[in-house]
Amino acid sequence: MLTGQRLRKGRKLAQVHKGASEIFHRDGYSGASVDDIARAARVSKATLYSYFPEKAAMFQEVILQTLEETAIQTPIRIAADCKAHEGVPELTRQIAAWQLSRPAISLQRLIIAESTRFPDIARRYHAIIDTILHDAIRTHLDRWVERAELTIADTAVAARQLVKLAGASLHDQPIAAAMPPDALDHHVDGIARAAAQLFLASNLTANTGPELRHASG
Fold first, then answer.
1. Given Cys at both, which of 38, 64, 166, 205 links 95, Cβ 3.0 to 4.6 Å?
2. pLDDT tens per residue, range 15-36
3. Taking the model in full, what pTM does it have?
4. 180 belongs to a structural domain
């Protein structure tokens, strides 16, 4: 269960959150020790326990705060006047880049590892992904359908398909996490380009000009 009362007061609470987040992401829930968290937060164990009487409550609070920060804004940034043949490749690039970013990789691994112990947090995580990815993508797909640039029967389904196509990179996370920035950018571009080509090949309207079809192929 999610904690019923969220702790928001206390001069050192921000330090506790930062230290606990660092240790939980590094060691997982089971591997995280209160001693390590106290050292990372630069507080005494007594201070730590004054905020959180048990590790489970600390984990839930810290991860919920991380999820709230994640939910503040979508990683999707596409101009409203962008054409589908240009916008879809940019969508897939932004999806792949976000999924392969170190914070996203770390959070996803932690959520998956602890989903059985903390199912409510896992559900919250997936609800946030729906909002910041699927809902944001669907807004653009709906606009391109209205402009007769794409032919899509169900944009909600199509949005999920697009995320999965760009998410083909997820199995590469351990490799991507060790890549230098330039190599990671090249990796993301390749994934995004392949995903966009496949999606556009299936959904571009029949009246799309040959020059636009060539650009997307």
1. 166
2. 999 999 999 999 999 999 999 9
3. 0.75
4. yes
